Amino acid sequence: MEEIKTKLLGYLNQAGIQADITARPKHIYSIYKKMSRKGISFDQVYDVRGVRIIVPDIPSCYSALGVIHTHWRPIPGEFDDYIAVPKDNFYRSLHTSVVYNDGKTLEIQIRTTEMNQSAEYGIAAHWRYKEGSSRDEDYERRILWLRSLMEWKQDVEDAREFLDSMKTDVFQERVYVFTPKGDIIDLPAGSTPIDFAYSVHTDIGHRCRGAKVNGKLVTLDYVLKTGDKVEILTAKRGGPSRDWMNANLGLVKTQRAKTKIRRWFKKQALEQNISQGKSILDRELKRLGVTDVNLDRLSREFEFRSIDDLFEAIGCGDLPIGKLVNHLTLGDKESEEGIITVAKPSSEALKPTMDTVAVLGLKGLLTTNARCCNPAPGDLIIGYITRGRGATIHRQDCPNILRIKDRERLVQVSWGEVKSTYPVPVRIKAYDRSGLMKDISTLITDEGVNMASINVETSHNLAIFDLTLEVHDIAELSKILDRLENLPNVIEAKRVRPG
Question: How far apart are alpha carbons 269 and 20 in whole angstroms?
């Protein structure tokens, strides 16, 4: 690294560029974390060796970049200009990766002293604000950014949701897209045209009805890529669709857009929200084949004062229907048949394995089932710590366990979650068209769900598909029904109740 630093300093001095250079090799654990996070091989980690160049001003940043690219070949796709297009948290720098003389990669960051201090110490590092001083636009822009974060926080239910939102909207990978006028909009990776519309203006988001990307019409769940030119097609009046808040459809990615959508629905008449929420819940429960749900108990568990408050929260989007469905899956143990009425999983699915037993206070401990009593899921069990073979799992009434004198080697254990699937009959009604069967089967395959059987009947241009899907829980069923109903020509997709 010292040799690289010396050579770089020599080239920059020859070009008349004053620079301060620091060099470091990337730590082994940092390399491992990056490979795990991005799912890449070691050869694709281009910043194993990193150099940071600090120069006096912005023109010197680009001059230094020119010198570097003159002497070493840049790696395609590994150049980022965060000076021209700063990150949402005001980080600015030039990043490039080149092939050094030894044939290995070298990452170089180029920035000014101010940019470096801002990156190292945070966006507050360079604020200067005194009474009577001239207007500092950069300072005011940062203040507005922080103020928008604090206002945004008021609409978030709890600290965990706010933290998740920050991770999504501020600290995630970014994409840079263009408005029709050429302005750059900075969004989190995975954003959709609806996120773009709300980022431009709240009113444009509310009235968004379609989008063009690079001159071509796209669906509203299209994932934007860096360099896309986006044009939003709007209605003269109206508001957002409640489907936008359905996480299963993937129409909205950013928390800011979700917050603005929820705020719009909250402004609607209370009675309308209650009616809409009741309609949404009734439709979802009917579609999933769930009956006899105790709404009073459900309201209390979600800490609402009344059933109407529960309906209002669903209607204005404060309580996503997916969250409620997950709660039914986890909470209604006493009425399991009301949630998923199924044949019992096969004996193979319930066969105990090492990862179906949880040892209290210990994670990753090897467990084996004792041959003397052969415990099965549902039995009361206890663990015995052996020498060199982890924990042996016995039934609590096993004679060998009852005779053990070395009681301190016994540990409390429990059956973990048995990963099994349940066959659920589903009916899809759709207007018949070419490729419909393929679209349905592809969607189900993409969701990782097995289709045990299928029967199709067509009459007068109407197709009825009777499927048996093997799902893990009601949340997975809800998601796949949502996605099926979103296919072109599909009228409805719902679970079929026996009888």
Answer: 62
Minimal CA–CA distance to 246: which of 321, 172, 145? Answer: 321
For residues 192 and 223, the answer to whether their CB atoms sit within 8 Å is: yes
* Torsion angle, alpha carbons of 328, 333, 337, 342, to 10: 90
d(CA 386, CA 145): 58
296: in domain = yes
* CA pseudo-torsion sign 392, 394, 398, 403: positive
Helix axes 270-288, 474-485, angle to 10 degrees: 110
Tell me the CATH number at 73.
Answer: 3.30.460.10
Instruction: Round to whole Å and give the CA distance between 442 and 408.
Output: 54
pTM above 0.70, yes or no: no
Greater model confidence, 333 or 162: 162
Residue 177 pairs in a beta bridge with 185
Compute the distance between CA of residue 26 and CA of residue 45 in angstroms, rounded to an integer.
10
- What are phi and psi for residue 48, nearest 5 degrees? -60, -40
- % of residues, the chain, pLDDT over 70: 78
| 8 A C-beta contact, residue 453 and residue 421 | no
Backbone φ and ψ for 72, nearest 5 degrees, come out as: -135, 145
> Residue 466 belongs to a domain with what CATH number?
3.30.70.260
190: CATH: 3.10.20.30
Whether residue 331 is predicted with pLDDT greater than 50 in this model: the reply is no
* Dihedral pair phi/psi, residue 302, rounded to 5°: -95, 10
The answer to whether residue 132 is domain-embedded is no
Residue with tokens 């059987």: 453
